[in-house]
Design brief:
By secondary structure, this protein is an alpha+beta fold. The protein contains 21 helices and 15 strands. The strands form 4 sheets. A 9-stranded mixed β-sheet has the order 1-4-13-12-5-6-9-8-7, sandwiched between helices. It binds adenosine-5'-triphosphate and magnesium ion.
């Protein structure tokens, strides 16, 4: 298990008795607002991105409330580095847009402002009102027959907003006015005990947005938290509701689940709660047909490798991830086609098309990833051809490196011959050695070209 997936220390001090500001009854029950002053917690502005601070301060100066909220506060309190920073405010998205030139409004179901600073995006969400105040006639808020929230754009106060958040540990607010942390829902206590607890009634909250079940698993795996027992049973019962979620949203979630650095822990929890089946039905089915433990080991090994690459700062791609997750169904489909008399390359092509088509109906995969995924697959039979010019051609293929890495994983779990993988390792080394004199000549050429360009007059530079 890579470091960073399990980390349960919580850094804040100060008891609720000392810091309680009793706000009286908030409609859904007796609620206490706990305020932990700056001296009682570990969140320092030095650990908040300067972009997030700019957004918070500009909102404040314009007379709005502005809080850091969500994963940023949670992770800082845990002593972890936040993935991103989210801001909550009473300014409407349009008001936010007027304050920031670098701002775009996104989302129909849940309208948000994205304020961009180079590659960093600060997500600014306007406080949402509570649903029980909504009426069916309200065009800005709507639910499906299953209770799923289809639109959610009725604005409210921080006291309303807190109930709309998913888990108690995600509903802590850091106030830019006095740097205090505000807790309405016992999130600080749950951070301390390592509990992932749904705010409100689990069944209702998971029905409102079934993706929260995936989020529960993701956070539990990443933080090493225990999902509270009341939610556990509901997740096992309501997983099927994810079938109605648009495939594009599930694709986004799949990337967060498996490319967040804790893929192995997440995968194990997904299987435990019977949710993996919903996301990758063909893979789940193939796991049931385990031959000598191979398929299960392959997916696990591939996910281990993903976590390891991320820990080492190496790139990972959705194409490789999907190629690995779907390899076993792909392999079985290829076998069937081979038995029907197809050639290995034809079988790989056709099986690739079929498996991709079936999967994207569940969790979409944009073409820029599905093409390279299929190339990784179709290169597998090509890697078996070692005679004549074939290996050299395979080596030149733009997807060779990924396909070779894929072969190494297959060989590690005993599904491809180790000798084949070793042969390709040696072949590349030999090829690299042969290429060396050419490579050495290349920089000299480049230098000459650069010098020549320098002498050209810089066109229109004086304008
Ligand atoms: P991370 O960014 O580390 O993945 P996060 O908790 O910040 O975790 P985001 O998806 O960035 O997650 O969302 C920010 C916050 O918005 C969450 O902490 C939560 O309070 C709220 N939120 C996001 N998605 C939902 C949802 N589906 N239902 C309810 N609240 C949500
Ligand atoms: Mg976040």
């Amino acid at each position: 298990m890579p470091a960073g997936c399990y980390y349960t220390h919580c850094y804040y001090s100060g008891t609720s008795e000392n810091n309680v500001t009793n706000q009286g009854d908030i409609d859904s029950g007796s609620v206490q607002r706990v305020t932990v002053p700056r001296s009682g917690h570990v969140i320092s502005r030095a650990n908040i991105s300067s972009s997030a601070l700019k957004v918070l301060y500009r909102l404040k100066e314009a007379g709005f409330q502005a809080y850091l909220v969500g994963g940023g506060v949670r992770d800082l309190l845990l002593g972890r580095e936040p993935k991103d920073f989210d801001v909550g405010t009473d300014a409407t998205p349009e008001q936010v847009r007027q304050l920031f030139r670098n701002c775009r409004l996104i989302g129909r179901r849940f309208r948000l402002a994205h304020v961009r600073f180079g590659r960093e995006i600060i997500e600014v969400a306007t406080f949402r009102a509570r649903h029980d105040e909504d009426t069916d006639a309200d065009r800005d808020s709507a639910r499906s027959d299953e209770g799923r929230i289809l639109r959610d754009n009725v604005y409210g106060t921080i006291e309303d907003d807190v109930w709309r958040r998913d888990f108690t540990v995600n509903a802590l607010y850091y106030d830019i006015r006095d740097f205090s942390v505000i807790d309405y829902v016992g999130g600080l206590h749950d951070l301390e005990s390592g509990t992932l607890r749904v705010i409100g009634e689990p069944e209702q909250r998971f029905r409102e947005d079934p993706v929260r079940m995936l989020r529960a698993v993701r956070f539990a795996a990443k933080l090493g938290f225990r999902i509270d027992p009341a939610s556990e049973t509901v997740i096992q019962e309501l997983g099927y509701l994810l079938e109605d979620i648009p495939s594009a949203r599930l694709f986004d979630e799949v990337l967060k689940l498996f490319l967040g650095g804790c893929a192995v822990a997440t995968y194990e929890l997904l299987r435990h709660y019977d949710l993996f089946r919903i996301l990758f039905p063909m893979t789940e089915e193939s796991l049931g047909r385990e031959e000598e433990g191979f398929p299960h080991t392959f997916v696990l090994r591939a996910l281990e490798n993903t976590d390891q690459r991320l820990a080492e700062g190496k790139p990972v791609t959705p194409a490789f991830l999907y190629a690995a997750l779907l390899w076993e169904p792909m392999r079985l489909r290829m076998q069937e086609l081979l038995e029907d008399g197809m050639s290995p390359l034809e079988a790989a092509q056709l099986a690739g098309n079929q498996i991709t088509a079936e999967q994207v109906a569940v969790t979409s995969l944009p073409k820029r990833f599905s093409f390279p995924m299929r190339e990784i697959w179709t290169l597998q039979p090509r890697l078996e051809r070692r005679r004549g010019k074939a290996p050299q051609r395979t080596l030149q293929h733009p997807r060779f490196r990924a396909a070779y890495d894929f072969l190494l994983l297959r060989a590690e779990v005993g599904e491809a011959p180790e000798e084949l993988a070793a042969w390709w390792t040696a072949f590349q080394n030999r090829d690299a050695a042969e290429q060396e004199p050419v490579a050495a000549a290349a920089p000299a050429k480049k230098k000459r070209r650069r010098r020549r360009r320098k002498r050209k007059p810089a066109a229109a530079s004086d304008d």
